[in-house]
Amino acid sequence: MLIGSMLLQLGGTSSSIPALVMQSGPFGKGVLLFLLALSVYSWAVIWNRTRVYGQVEKADRDFRVAFRRLPPGADFRLMADQHPRSLLARVALAGQRALDQHPADAGSPALRYEIALRAMDRTVAEETAGYERGVGFLATVGSVSPFVGLMGTVWGVMTAFMDIGTQGSASLVVVAPGIAEALITTIAGLAAAIPAVVGYNHLLGRLRDLTNIGGQFANEFLEQRLGVGTSDERRVGVAGR
Q1: pLDDT digit string (tens) for 199-227?
Q2: Three-state DSSP class for 54?
Q3: Please, how many CA atoms are within 13 Å of residue 27, restricted to the half-sphere of its CB?
Q4: Are the beta carbons of 80 and 93 closer than 8 angstroms?
Q5: Whole-number mean pLDDT of the chain?
Q6: Whether 182 contacts 160, CB under 8 Å
Q7: In terms of residue numbers, what domain contains 16?
Q8: CA within 20 to 30 Å of 168's CA: 13, 129, 175, 234, which one?
Q9: Count of alpha carbons within 13 angstroms of residue 37, beta-carbon side
Q10: Where are the alpha helices (DSSP H) in 102-134?
Q11: pLDDT score of 57 more than 90
Q12: Total domains, the chain
Protein backbone atom coordinates (compact mmCIF):
# COMPACT_ATOMS: atom_id res chain seq x y z
CA MET A 1 0.00 0.00 0.00
CA LEU A 2 2.82 2.41 0.85
CA ILE A 3 4.56 1.74 -2.47
CA GLY A 4 1.27 2.12 -4.32
CA SER A 5 0.62 5.46 -2.64
CA MET A 6 4.10 6.63 -3.59
CA LEU A 7 3.61 5.66 -7.21
CA LEU A 8 0.21 7.37 -7.29
CA GLN A 9 1.68 10.54 -5.88
CA LEU A 10 4.51 10.41 -8.37
CA GLY A 11 1.98 9.97 -11.13
CA GLY A 12 -0.01 12.87 -9.75
CA THR A 13 3.03 15.13 -10.07
CA SER A 14 3.29 14.17 -13.75
CA SER A 15 6.47 12.18 -13.19
CA SER A 16 7.47 9.52 -15.72
CA ILE A 17 9.96 6.69 -15.82
CA PRO A 18 12.46 8.64 -17.99
CA ALA A 19 12.10 11.64 -15.67
CA LEU A 20 12.75 9.49 -12.63
CA VAL A 21 15.81 7.99 -14.28
CA MET A 22 17.17 11.44 -15.07
CA GLN A 23 16.47 12.62 -11.51
CA SER A 24 18.23 9.64 -9.93
CA GLY A 25 21.67 10.01 -8.40
CA PRO A 26 25.00 9.15 -10.03
CA PHE A 27 25.11 5.72 -8.38
CA GLY A 28 21.61 4.82 -9.56
CA LYS A 29 22.39 5.98 -13.09
CA GLY A 30 25.59 3.95 -13.04
CA VAL A 31 23.68 0.82 -12.01
CA LEU A 32 21.10 1.39 -14.75
CA LEU A 33 23.76 1.93 -17.41
CA PHE A 34 25.58 -1.21 -16.31
CA LEU A 35 22.38 -3.25 -16.48
CA LEU A 36 21.58 -1.75 -19.86
CA ALA A 37 25.00 -2.81 -21.17
CA LEU A 38 24.48 -6.34 -19.83
CA SER A 39 21.04 -6.54 -21.42
CA VAL A 40 22.19 -5.26 -24.82
CA TYR A 41 25.11 -7.70 -24.93
CA SER A 42 22.84 -10.55 -23.81
CA TRP A 43 20.39 -9.85 -26.63
CA ALA A 44 23.31 -9.68 -29.08
CA VAL A 45 24.53 -13.10 -27.93
CA ILE A 46 21.01 -14.57 -28.14
CA TRP A 47 20.50 -13.21 -31.66
CA ASN A 48 23.94 -14.28 -32.87
CA ARG A 49 23.84 -17.81 -31.44
CA THR A 50 20.25 -18.34 -32.61
CA ARG A 51 21.27 -17.34 -36.13
CA VAL A 52 24.38 -19.56 -36.07
CA TYR A 53 22.51 -22.58 -34.69
CA GLY A 54 19.81 -22.15 -37.31
CA GLN A 55 22.41 -22.12 -40.09
CA VAL A 56 24.15 -25.21 -38.70
CA GLU A 57 20.88 -27.11 -38.29
CA LYS A 58 19.79 -26.32 -41.85
CA ALA A 59 23.19 -27.28 -43.27
CA ASP A 60 23.15 -30.51 -41.26
CA ARG A 61 19.73 -31.47 -42.61
CA ASP A 62 20.84 -30.82 -46.20
CA PHE A 63 24.11 -32.70 -45.78
CA ARG A 64 22.46 -35.68 -44.07
CA VAL A 65 19.92 -36.02 -46.88
CA ALA A 66 22.62 -35.81 -49.54
CA PHE A 67 24.92 -38.22 -47.69
CA ARG A 68 22.21 -40.86 -47.34
CA ARG A 69 21.66 -40.79 -51.09
CA LEU A 70 25.26 -41.80 -51.75
CA PRO A 71 26.13 -45.47 -52.27
CA PRO A 72 28.27 -47.04 -49.51
CA GLY A 73 31.91 -46.06 -49.83
CA ALA A 74 31.27 -43.21 -52.30
CA ASP A 75 33.43 -40.09 -52.09
CA PHE A 76 31.57 -37.32 -50.27
CA ARG A 77 34.33 -34.70 -49.90
CA LEU A 78 33.01 -32.40 -52.62
CA MET A 79 29.55 -32.61 -51.10
CA ALA A 80 30.98 -31.74 -47.68
CA ASP A 81 32.68 -28.67 -49.17
CA GLN A 82 29.30 -27.55 -50.44
CA HIS A 83 28.00 -27.42 -46.85
CA PRO A 84 30.66 -25.39 -44.98
CA ARG A 85 28.30 -24.61 -42.08
CA SER A 86 27.44 -28.26 -41.44
CA LEU A 87 28.71 -29.86 -38.25
CA LEU A 88 27.98 -33.29 -39.69
CA ALA A 89 30.14 -32.58 -42.74
CA ARG A 90 33.14 -31.80 -40.54
CA VAL A 91 32.45 -34.87 -38.43
CA ALA A 92 32.31 -37.04 -41.55
CA LEU A 93 35.57 -35.59 -42.87
CA ALA A 94 37.27 -36.31 -39.53
CA GLY A 95 36.04 -39.89 -39.61
CA GLN A 96 37.17 -40.40 -43.20
CA ARG A 97 40.64 -39.04 -42.42
CA ALA A 98 40.93 -41.49 -39.53
CA LEU A 99 39.89 -44.39 -41.76
CA ASP A 100 42.35 -43.32 -44.47
CA GLN A 101 45.18 -43.21 -41.94
CA HIS A 102 44.33 -46.75 -40.78
CA PRO A 103 43.54 -48.81 -43.89
CA ALA A 104 41.76 -52.15 -43.73
CA ASP A 105 44.97 -54.16 -43.91
CA ALA A 106 46.49 -52.27 -40.96
CA GLY A 107 44.11 -53.52 -38.28
CA SER A 108 40.83 -55.18 -37.45
CA PRO A 109 37.52 -53.52 -38.42
CA ALA A 110 36.66 -53.11 -34.74
CA LEU A 111 39.91 -51.21 -34.13
CA ARG A 112 39.34 -48.98 -37.15
CA TYR A 113 35.81 -48.36 -35.91
CA GLU A 114 37.04 -47.25 -32.49
CA ILE A 115 39.81 -45.02 -33.87
CA ALA A 116 37.49 -43.29 -36.30
CA LEU A 117 34.72 -42.93 -33.72
CA ARG A 118 37.09 -41.26 -31.26
CA ALA A 119 38.27 -38.84 -33.95
CA MET A 120 34.67 -37.96 -34.79
CA ASP A 121 33.74 -37.53 -31.13
CA ARG A 122 36.67 -35.14 -30.69
CA THR A 123 35.48 -33.14 -33.67
CA VAL A 124 31.97 -32.90 -32.23
CA ALA A 125 33.37 -31.71 -28.90
CA GLU A 126 35.66 -29.13 -30.52
CA GLU A 127 32.96 -27.74 -32.81
CA THR A 128 30.29 -27.52 -30.13
CA ALA A 129 32.77 -25.77 -27.83
CA GLY A 130 33.02 -23.08 -30.50
CA TYR A 131 29.24 -22.89 -30.82
CA GLU A 132 28.99 -22.42 -27.06
CA ARG A 133 30.98 -19.17 -27.18
CA GLY A 134 29.05 -16.45 -25.35
CA VAL A 135 26.31 -18.72 -24.06
CA GLY A 136 27.87 -18.95 -20.62
CA PHE A 137 27.71 -15.16 -20.38
CA LEU A 138 23.92 -15.40 -20.41
CA ALA A 139 24.00 -17.56 -17.31
CA THR A 140 26.23 -15.00 -15.60
CA VAL A 141 23.87 -12.17 -16.50
CA GLY A 142 20.87 -14.16 -15.32
CA SER A 143 22.43 -14.78 -11.92
CA VAL A 144 24.16 -11.41 -11.37
CA SER A 145 21.65 -8.88 -12.72
CA PRO A 146 19.06 -9.26 -9.92
CA PHE A 147 21.77 -8.66 -7.33
CA VAL A 148 23.01 -5.59 -9.19
CA GLY A 149 19.44 -4.30 -9.25
CA LEU A 150 19.13 -5.11 -5.56
CA MET A 151 22.26 -3.09 -4.89
CA GLY A 152 20.62 -0.12 -6.59
CA THR A 153 17.49 -0.75 -4.55
CA VAL A 154 19.37 -0.70 -1.27
CA TRP A 155 21.15 2.47 -2.33
CA GLY A 156 17.84 4.15 -3.20
CA VAL A 157 16.28 3.19 0.12
CA MET A 158 19.35 4.43 1.94
CA THR A 159 19.11 7.72 0.04
CA ALA A 160 15.46 8.04 1.05
CA PHE A 161 16.30 7.58 4.73
CA MET A 162 19.13 10.09 4.46
CA ASP A 163 16.69 12.62 3.00
CA ILE A 164 14.35 11.98 5.90
CA GLY A 165 17.16 12.68 8.36
CA THR A 166 18.30 15.78 6.51
CA GLN A 167 14.85 17.36 6.10
CA GLY A 168 13.35 16.02 9.32
CA SER A 169 10.23 14.85 7.51
CA ALA A 170 8.93 11.45 6.46
CA SER A 171 6.34 12.73 3.98
CA LEU A 172 5.91 11.12 0.58
CA VAL A 173 7.42 14.16 -1.10
CA VAL A 174 10.69 13.45 0.72
CA VAL A 175 10.64 9.64 0.55
CA ALA A 176 9.13 8.99 -2.88
CA PRO A 177 12.11 9.94 -5.13
CA GLY A 178 14.53 7.59 -3.35
CA ILE A 179 12.04 4.72 -3.30
CA ALA A 180 11.20 5.30 -6.96
CA GLU A 181 14.88 5.12 -7.83
CA ALA A 182 15.11 1.86 -5.88
CA LEU A 183 12.14 0.36 -7.71
CA ILE A 184 13.52 1.33 -11.12
CA THR A 185 16.84 -0.45 -10.52
CA THR A 186 15.00 -3.53 -9.28
CA ILE A 187 12.90 -3.65 -12.44
CA ALA A 188 15.99 -3.07 -14.60
CA GLY A 189 17.79 -5.97 -12.91
CA LEU A 190 14.88 -8.32 -13.56
CA ALA A 191 14.49 -7.04 -17.13
CA ALA A 192 18.11 -7.94 -17.82
CA ALA A 193 18.04 -11.29 -16.00
CA ILE A 194 14.82 -12.87 -17.31
CA PRO A 195 15.64 -12.81 -21.07
CA ALA A 196 19.20 -13.96 -20.32
CA VAL A 197 17.99 -17.00 -18.37
CA VAL A 198 15.38 -17.91 -20.99
CA GLY A 199 17.90 -17.46 -23.80
CA TYR A 200 20.53 -19.52 -21.98
CA ASN A 201 18.19 -22.47 -21.42
CA HIS A 202 16.94 -22.32 -25.02
CA LEU A 203 20.41 -22.14 -26.55
CA LEU A 204 21.77 -24.82 -24.25
CA GLY A 205 18.98 -27.18 -25.34
CA ARG A 206 19.75 -26.57 -29.01
CA LEU A 207 23.45 -27.08 -28.34
CA ARG A 208 22.73 -30.43 -26.71
CA ASP A 209 20.67 -31.41 -29.75
CA LEU A 210 23.59 -30.58 -32.04
CA THR A 211 25.93 -32.68 -29.89
CA ASN A 212 23.54 -35.65 -29.84
CA ILE A 213 22.93 -35.48 -33.59
CA GLY A 214 26.68 -35.37 -34.19
CA GLY A 215 27.20 -38.50 -32.07
CA GLN A 216 24.37 -40.36 -33.80
CA PHE A 217 25.67 -39.43 -37.23
CA ALA A 218 29.15 -40.71 -36.32
CA ASN A 219 27.72 -44.20 -35.80
CA GLU A 220 25.66 -43.95 -38.98
CA PHE A 221 28.71 -42.83 -40.98
CA LEU A 222 30.92 -45.65 -39.74
CA GLU A 223 28.26 -48.27 -40.37
CA GLN A 224 28.01 -47.07 -43.96
CA ARG A 225 31.76 -46.82 -44.48
CA LEU A 226 32.71 -50.12 -42.82
CA GLY A 227 29.67 -52.13 -43.84
CA VAL A 228 27.11 -54.27 -42.04
CA GLY A 229 28.10 -55.85 -38.75
CA THR A 230 30.23 -53.02 -37.41
CA SER A 231 28.02 -52.66 -34.35
CA ASP A 232 28.84 -56.21 -33.29
CA GLU A 233 32.52 -55.66 -34.03
CA ARG A 234 32.49 -52.48 -32.00
CA ARG A 235 31.03 -54.31 -29.01
CA VAL A 236 33.76 -56.92 -29.29
CA GLY A 237 36.42 -54.22 -29.44
CA VAL A 238 34.98 -52.42 -26.39
CA ALA A 239 34.78 -55.66 -24.40
CA GLY A 240 38.40 -56.45 -25.21
CA ARG A 241 39.72 -53.15 -23.87
Answers
A1: 999 999 999 999 999 999 999 998 888 76
A2: helix
A3: 15
A4: yes
A5: 81
A6: yes
A7: 2-240
A8: 13
A9: 7
A10: 109-131
A11: yes
A12: 1
